[in-house]
Amino acid sequence: MPQFLDTQDADFEAAFSALLSAKREDSPDVDDTVAAIIADVRARGDAAVIELTAKFDRMELTPDRLAFTPDEIATAAAMVPAAERDALELAAERIRAYHVRQMPPDASWTDPDGATLGWRWTAVSAAGLYVPGGLASYPSSVLMNAIPAKVAGVDRLAIAVPTPDGQVNPLVLLAAKIAGVDEIYRIGGAQAIAALAYGTGTIAPVDKITGPGNAFVAAAKRRVFGKVGIDMIAGPSEILVIADKDNDPDWVALDLMSQAEHDESAQSILITDDADFAQLVAAAVDKRLETLDRRAIAGTSWRDFGAIITVRDLSEAAALSNRIAPEHLELCVNDPEGLAASCVHAGAIFLGRYTPEAIGDYVGGPNHVLPTARSARFSSGLSVLDFLKRTTMARMTPEALRAIGPSAACLAQSESLEAHGLSVRARLDQLNR
Amino acid sequence: MPQFLDTQDADFEAAFSALLSAKREDSPDVDDTVAAIIADVRARGDAAVIELTAKFDRMELTPDRLAFTPDEIATAAAMVPAAERDALELAAERIRAYHVRQMPPDASWTDPDGATLGWRWTAVSAAGLYVPGGLASYPSSVLMNAIPAKVAGVDRLAIAVPTPDGQVNPLVLLAAKIAGVDEIYRIGGAQAIAALAYGTGTIAPVDKITGPGNAFVAAAKRRVFGKVGIDMIAGPSEILVIADKDNDPDWVALDLMSQAEHDESAQSILITDDADFAQLVAAAVDKRLETLDRRAIAGTSWRDFGAIITVRDLSEAAALSNRIAPEHLELCVNDPEGLAASCVHAGAIFLGRYTPEAIGDYVGGPNHVLPTARSARFSSGLSVLDFLKRTTMARMTPEALRAIGPSAACLAQSESLEAHGLSVRARLDQLNR
C-alpha cells in the first residue's frame, strides 16, 4: 500500500514534508576502496586495469584486448533483430533532431563605448561515457549520452562498459555504433573511471565523463571531478503524475509502475483532484502488480515510497509539484500547457493523456538523463551544453579603454590590487600623451 | 626568476609537461572539521551558527543580528567615496548589459510525426552567494556573482560575508545593494555554507550556492553539493599572454603581475615568438617587482610558477595555449581574432594590445569567475545559465503516439522493462480499437 495523503487532512503538511525528506537510498561508503583503485590505476595504468577487471569481472584481458575491435562490434551489431535495430535507429534520429536544436549561438557585438564583446562555444575535445553492465545495461542510455556529445562536436568519444564473465549486450554495441562512438572498452567500475580520467598506456585520457553507474562508479566520478568534468550523480528514478478523473486509471497505474519497476528505491507519486479516481488508480496498480514481470521490485517501490495525494484543485497540485521538483512530471489533464506554466521545477514534463513517460525514455527526442532527488530545483537534464564550454571575448579599442579604463583602475585600487590598476593606467598614460 | 622554455630546446616537451602538471596548491584536509560543522548547523541551527561565529570571527551575534539591517547597509554604502561608487555603478551596468544577452530562448516546435517538443528555462528560486571577508573581500566579485543571478530572475538572493572582529568592507555592502541582493548575513566559513544549504530558524535555505572561499568553504560546498547546486571550486588564478615583439614590454609585464599579485600560487605565463622580447619582458617584470605594493606575493608566484616560453611562430603558441587551457588568455598580436580562432580552450580571451586582463576583472562586462587549473577544457565561466535550469517538454498527439509508440514499446521490451512498454501499448490498444 502506498501512502494516501489529502491536503484537507489536518496532518497533511507534516506527512508531505516527511515524504519530501524521506531518504530513499543508502549509498554504501566505498570511498576508501575507490581511492585505492584510482591511485592504483594512476600508478600502474593498464596493468592495474587488467588486474582489477580479472578480479571484479572475471575477465582475463591484455592491453590489446581492452577495446572491442571493429569486427567484434560489427558481429555483435549484426546479431540484433531487425525490429530492435529499426527502433534504435528511429530513436537515434529523433534524439539527434531534438539535440541539434540545443546548439547555442555564438555572439559578438560592439557597445556604445567601442568595446567589442561576446562569447564563443566550443566542444569538449574528448569525452568518456560509462555504461553499466548486466541488468542496468540500457542501449537507450548509450544513445542519450552519446548523441548530445557527438552533436556538440566532441571529437573523440569513448565508452567503458564492463562485460562480467564475458557477457555483453549486443544492443549496447549497436547503439554505440549508431551514435558514432569512437572507442569501446570492456572495463567497468572505479577502474574504468580512473582510466578515462587519467589515461593508461592504451586508453587516452578524456576531458569529461558522463553516464550512470553503481556506488563505486559514482564515488569515482566524484573523486575525479576537477581533473575532468562530470555530469550529475543520479539517484533513483521518480515520477509525479498529475491526473484528473477523466483518465483511464490503468494508464496512470502503468505510468506509475514504469518508474517503480526500475528500482526498489524509485518513487511514483500521483496527485489528483478526485478522491474516487485516487482509489481507482490504487486498485489498478494492485491489479497490475499481480502479473508484472518485475512485480517484486515495483511492488516494493510502491509500498515503501509510493504516494497518492488528493488535492482540492489543480493549482494546489502545481504548488505541491514545485516542492517535489520531480525528475519526470506527467500532466494528464485537459489543459496540460496551462498547468505546465505553473510547474516551474521539473526535469521533464509530459503533456496530455497520450504522452506516457516511457515515450521520453526512448523515442520522444528530449534526453532521459534528468535531475533526481529534487535537484530539478537547480539543475537540468543532459544536453549538448554538457559537452560544450563557453569562452568569453572582449576587445577594447583605445577609445573604449579611455572610456571605461579609469573605473577599472579605481576599483583595482580600492581592492588593493596595484598591478591590476597599473596595467590599465600604463596604457591610458600612453594614450593621453 | 621564472622558467625560460624554448620549443626548439631538446627537453622542451618534458619541461612543458612538468609545467602543466605542477601542483600549485596544497589544500589542507579540513574535511572532518567541515563535516562536524555542517552536522552541528543542521542539528542546532542558529545556535550553532552563532557559537561558531563567536569562535572563528570573535563576533557575538543574536538571531536578530545575523542579517545586516537596511539601515546598516545604507550607512555603510554612504561611506563609500563618490569615485568608487560611480565606478561600481558603471561596472554593474556593463556586467548587467553583457549578461542580459546570455538569457537563452525557450523553444517549442511540432515535428512531422505530430509530436510537439521543446524546452523552457526557469530561474532557480533562491541562491546564496559566499563573499570572503578580510583581504580577499572583493566588491567586484559581489557584482560578478549577484548580477547574473538577478538577471536570470532569482527571486531571493542571500549573501554570507564574515565580519571578523566586526570588520566589514563598505564597498561589499554597496556592491550588494547595487546588484539587488535581498539578504546579507554577517557569517562565514563552513557554518555559512551549511546555513545557506540547510537553513536555520532565521535563514531560509537556498537552492544554489556560488562564490569563492577558503579551504573550509570549498570543502563545505563539495559536501552540500546535491542538496543544493554549487558553482565550480576555483583554484588560484592564472594568465597566459601571447605577445609578439611589437608590444610595450612593461604593459605585458604588468599584465603578468596583475595575476601574480593575487596569490603566491597564481601562475603567469608569457608565450612569444621573439626571444629578445622575452628578455625585455623578464627585465620589465624585475623592475616592477622592485616597487609593487604586493611585490612579495607577486615575486613568489613569478619565481615559483611563472614561465616565459619562446616559440617558432604564433600557431605553435596556439597549440601550447590549448594544452594549458588558461583561465585568462591575452592575445597581444596584430590579428588577435585570427589567433583566437585557434585557441579553443580558454575561460576568457582578451583581444589586442588595449585589452589588459584587469579590464575584464571589473568593467568589461563578461564574468570574472572563470575556470582554473585547466578546467577550461570542459567548463565555462559563471553566467546566467548557472542560475537557470531547463525543463524539457513533450506532447504526443494520438497520431504521434501511433507513429513512434511501437518503437518505444519494442525498446522497452528489449530492456526488460515491461511496464514501460505496457504504458505505451495500453494507449495504442485503445487507439487501434
TrEMBL record, chains A, B:
Pathway: Amino-acid biosynthesis; L-histidine biosynthesis; L-histidine from 5-phospho-alpha-D-ribose 1-diphosphate: step 9/9. Substrate binds at residues 237, 259, 262, 328, 361, 415, 420. GO terms for biological process: L-histidine biosynthetic process. Its cofactor is Zn(2+). It catalyses: L-histidinol + 2 NAD(+) + H2O = L-histidine + 2 NADH + 3 H(+). It is an enzyme of class 1 (oxidoreductase). Zn(2+) binds at residues 259, 262, 361, 420. The keyword NAD applies. Signal peptide: none annotated. NAD(+) binds at residues 130, 191, 214. GO terms for molecular function: histidinol dehydrogenase activity; NAD binding; zinc ion binding. InterPro entries: Ald_DH/histidinol_DH (IPR016161), Histidinol_DH_CS (IPR001692), Histidinol_DH_monofunct (IPR022695), Hstdl_DH (IPR012131). Keywords: Amino-acid biosynthesis, Histidine biosynthesis, Metal-binding, NAD, Oxidoreductase, Zinc. Its EC number is 1.1.1.23. Binds 1 zinc ion per subunit. CDD domains: Histidinol_dh. The active site is at 327 (proton acceptor), 328 (proton acceptor). GO terms for cellular component: cytosol. Coiled coil: none annotated. Catalyzes the sequential NAD-dependent oxidations of L-histidinol to L-histidinaldehyde and then to L-histidine. NCBIfam families: hisD. Belongs to the histidinol dehydrogenase family. This is Histidinol dehydrogenase. It comes from Antarcticimicrobium sediminis.
